[in-house]
Amino acid sequence: MPHQHDSHCGHESTEHDHDHGDSEGPKDNLFSQIDIDNVVALNATGRGSTVIKPWHQRLDEEKSIESDADDQMIIRVPFTGSVKLRSLLLKAGPADQTPLKVVLFSNEESLDFQDIADKASTQEFIVAQGREVGEYALRTAKFSNVSSISMFFPQSQGADTTQIYYLGFLGTWTERKMSAPITVYEAQANLADHEKIQGTEMGSSSPQF
Questions:
Q1: Confidence of residue 174 (pLDDT cuts 50, 70, 90)
Q2: How far apart are CA 87 and CA 155, in angstroms?
């Protein structure tokens, strides 16, 4: 599978042995920047936050999330700031419970099964079977200002349900600057502004009698 990095396991053993037990793992692991309380899983038996685990628990198979009515599932992950994503980390399975592919949507906070067909994906990958964590390189230009990411798993590789053990992300994080834009917007969005909108509907395109 071209998107699966076969050397990932070796990469882990050589680079990260020194921080074994460290929940942060690689320096660009975004675990601590995920808004875990607001992770949402649709058509799933369990909470989406179950699969958002510290680095040292990434291979743990005691906790997982499984699709419910069929083998489709959506997981939405919000971040506490603006992130630039470099890689998606995914552990799924076993075997035919592995999703066939994962379809990613950037900044689609309310994505559900009804409107997903009308949305253009940001990127997607074929998912390889395996007991390790797969690392999938993202197009950073398309994931450079991300407040949330939604992952659609359209079908399994043969089983009645899809199962995910671990989701993680590598990249950089910037604190979200909220106060200035909101202050400016509220200062300008006064009653006069609303009257202007109403007047436009009534007037400028046709004369009043």
A1: confident
A2: 22
- Please report where in the chains the tokens 């680095």 appear, as a residue: 55
Contact 66, 162 (CB under 8 A): yes
Token code pair at residue 122: 């940001």
For 103, the token pair is 């379809």
> Cα–chain-centroid distance for residue 156?
19
Which DSSP letter does residue 58 get?
T
Tell me the whole-structure pTM to 2 decimals: 0.74
Within 25-72, strands assigned E span: 40-42, 44-45, 65-67
> Nearest 5°: phi and psi at 5?
-90, 105
CB 65 within 8 A of CB 41: yes
Tens digit of each residue's pLDDT (9 = 90 or more) over 113-152: 998 989 999 999 999 999 999 999 999 999 999 999 999 9
Whether residue 60 contacts residue 97, with contact meaning beta carbons closer than 8 Å, is answered with no
- Identify the bridge partners of residue 70 per DSSP, sorted by sequence position: none
User: What domains can be seen in the chain, in order of their start residue?
Assistant: 8-176 (2.60.120.470)
How many CA atoms lie within 13 Å of 47's alpha carbon, on the beta-carbon side? 8
Gap between the Cα atoms of 153 and 104, Å rounded: 9
pLDDT tens track for 188-208:
444 444 443 444 444 444 444
Rounded to 5 degrees, what are φ and ψ at 59?
A: -95, 0
Burial class (CB in 10 A: 0-12, 13-18, 19+), 69: exposed
